[in-house]
């Protein structure tokens, strides 16, 4: 008999393969002046693909998908991943976090130079929105437009970019718990929550079920950042695939610096319980993958 854990592992394997195949196809290798090389380097062969998996799991939560919604979910998942990848390319540059290691390999600006890294990030951002509006598709125009709006809101000044601005402005400062939570709600949580909401949009999920998924996404997004702060303290660079301890070195406020290590861990588990409770009250028939993804976020080691 196959256990729920085995089912999730199989689901993950199948969906990750679809995402990797699509990203490999859609990120052009033949861009002008070899720009495709740093674009592909930034995205392929690395990363947990949590955001695409959240899109796909949310889209499937109400049941099996027809061809149009299934295509929309795959495109939306890849689009979110491209936004995430572009943000990492830019965040790692000397003008921001000045990091040399990402996903276990040199950062894009170290490998290709700052100008190519900047352009690769720009191109990945534009490609994300191009994926959401394919020509000759079975995806309704209204769905395409809504997906673009959701992703733009999550990535812009009231989302990821705004959160990064707060982060840079907070170096060396003591933030309250509310201020820290707001920063991470924007910087990290907005894109994770948007992943869930975009999946719901693809499947036409509305009403109380949508509200429950939004609550799940908000709790998950915050839990992800709390665990990130914990791992920055307890894990090494080889395990993380990025430079460990850099938040403390740069004087950045974190949940660990504010609450202490054990209290931060406990808070992450409280948020996990919130996410699972929201799913349980959603009324959706197929939330096992979403539940397992939340559990994976909190129990991860890198």
So what's the CATH class?
Answer: Mainly Alpha
Query: How many domain units?
Result: 1
Determine the CATH topology.
Farnesyl Diphosphate Synthase
Kindly state the number of beta strands: 2
Q: Write the CATH architecture name.
A: Orthogonal Bundle
Structural class: mainly alpha
How many helices? The count is 15
Proportion of helical residues: over 70%
Average per-residue pLDDT, rounded, comes to: 93
Alpha carbon gyration radius: 19 Å
Q: Which runs of at least 5 residues are low in confidence (pLDDT < 50)?
A: none
CATH superfamily: Farnesyl Diphosphate Synthase
Task: Give the N-to-C terminal Cα separation.
Answer: 31 Å
Can you summarize the main beta sheet?
A: 2 strands, antiparallel
Largest sheet strand order: 1-2
Coarse shape: globular
Cofactor: Mg(2+)
InterPro entries: Isoprenoid_synthase_dom_sf, Polyprenyl_synt, Polyprenyl_synt_CS, Prenyl_diphosphate_synthase
Protein name: Polyprenyl synthetase family protein
Pfam family, one: polyprenyl_synt
Description:
This protein has 302 residues and is mostly helical. The chain has helices spanning 4-26, 36-43, 50-59, 67-91, 108-112, 114-132, 141-155, 160-169, 177-203, 207-234, 237-240, 246-249, 255-259, 261-280, 288-299; strands at residues 101-102, 105-106. The chain has a two-stranded antiparallel sheet. The longest helix is centred in the last third of the chain and has 28 residues, at 207-234. It is globular and about 50 Å long. The relative contact order is 0.13. Its EC number is 2.5.1.-. Its cofactor is Mg(2+).
């Amino acid at each position: 008999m196959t256990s729920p854990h085995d089912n999730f592992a199989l689901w993950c394997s199948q969906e990750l393969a679809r995402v990797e195949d699509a990203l490999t196809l859609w990120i052009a290798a033949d861009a002008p002046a070899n720009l495709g090389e740093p674009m592909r380097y930034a995205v392929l062969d690395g990363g947990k693909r949590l955001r695409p998996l959240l899109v796909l799991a949310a889209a499937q939560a109400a049941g099996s998908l027809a061809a149009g919604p299934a295509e929309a979910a795959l495109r939306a998942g890849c689009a979110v991943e491209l936004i995430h990848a572009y943000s990492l390319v830019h965040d790692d540059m000397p003008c921001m976090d000045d990091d040399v290691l990402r996903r276990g390999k040199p950062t894009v600006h170290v490998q290709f130079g700052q100008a190519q890294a900047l352009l690769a990030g720009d191109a990945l951002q534009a490609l994300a929105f191009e994926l959401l509006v394919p020509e000759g598709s079975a995806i309704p125009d209204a769905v395409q437009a809504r997906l673009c709006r959701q992703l733009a809101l999550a990535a812009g000044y009231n989302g990821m970019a705004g959160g990064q601005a707060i982060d840079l402005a907070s170096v060396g400062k003591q933030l309250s718990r509310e201020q820290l939570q707001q920063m991470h709600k924007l910087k990290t949580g907005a894109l994770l929550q948007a992943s869930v909401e975009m999946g719901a949009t693809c499947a036409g999920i509305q009403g109380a079920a949508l509200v429950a998924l939004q609550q799940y996404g908000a709790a998950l997004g915050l839990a992800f950042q709390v665990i990130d702060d914990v791992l920055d303290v307890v894990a090494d660079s080889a395990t993380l695939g990025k430079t460990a301890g850099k938040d403390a070195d740069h004087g950045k406020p974190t949940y660990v610096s504010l609450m202490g290590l054990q209290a931060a861990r406990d808070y992450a588990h409280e948020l996990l319980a919130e996410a699972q409770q929201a799913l349980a009250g959603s009324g959706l028939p197929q939330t096992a993958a979403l539940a397992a993804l939340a559990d994976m976020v909190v129990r991860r080691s890198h």
